[in-house]
Amino acid sequence: MRSLSRDRQSVWFAKITEKIVGTSTVPVYEKPMEMHLVVTATAGLPDELGAGLVPDYDREIIYHKTRGCCNSFEPVEGMAVWVDRKPKLDAKGNLAKREDGKGVVTPPDYRLKRIITTQKSNVARYGIERIGGNL
Fold first, then answer.
1. What is the pLDDT of residues 71-98, one digit of tens each?
2. In 3D, which of 107, 106, 100, 89 has the Cα closest to residue 24?
3. Residues in Cβ contact with 19 at an 8 Å cutoff, skipping those fewer than 6 apart
4. Secondary structure E strands in the chain
5. Cβ 103 vs Cβ 27: under 8 Å
6. Distance between CA atoms of 103 and 91, rounded to whole angstroms?
7. Tens digit of pLDDT for each residue in 92-132?
8. How far, in Å, CA of 30 to CA of 104, rounded?
9. Cβ–Cβ under 8 Å, residues 104 and 29
10. Predicted confidence (pLDDT) at residue 41 exceeds the cutoff of 70
11. How far apart are CA 31 and CA 15, in angstroms?
12. Which residues on adjacent β-strands are paired with residue 134?
């Protein structure tokens, strides 16, 4: 039997906006938020796959909401997610930028594609998709 704290790993989330610089757009990342969550190896439950439902995301993050705690974690579809690697941060806790200033040193490896939750449930699932296809 698994507990709520078993198999957790560090996962970082950051919202992305775009800024126009000259004739190009540059992604701007907010300060990343680290959480300890369960990340599955593959997407989809056996009963979903057996019923012919094929998920359009690669992996799932499972988040157990705690009762009686005011939680500020409000994910938005399209957020950048670091699962398999740790983002490099500067002294202020922001993402470290490349020398040319056009990107970050450690780009995200996933993005949040789907939020699978209800209002009254204590468990939320988030479908994440690998950036750059299947590597």
1. 667 889 999 999 989 999 999 988 998 8
2. 100
3. 25, 26, 27, 28
4. 8-14, 16-21, 24-29, 33-39, 59-64, 80-82, 110-116, 123-130
5. yes
6. 17
7. 988 998 888 777 899 999 999 998 888 888 888 899 999 87
8. 11
9. yes
10. yes
11. 8
12. none
Average pLDDT over residues 28-53: 78
Quote the pLDDT of residue 43: 66
| Total residue length of the chain | 135
List the one residue out of 108, 126, 124 whose CA is nearest residue 43: 126
Minimal CA–CA distance to 115: which of 63, 69, 52? 63
Residue type, 85: R
Helix (H, G, I), strand (E, B) or coil at 97: strand
Report how far Cα 10 is from the mean position of its chain's Cα atoms: 11
Q: Tokens 């680290």 sit at which residue?
A: 34
Higher pLDDT, 115 or 49: 115
The single-letter code of the amino acid at 74 is E
Cα separation, 120 vs 114, whole angstroms? 18
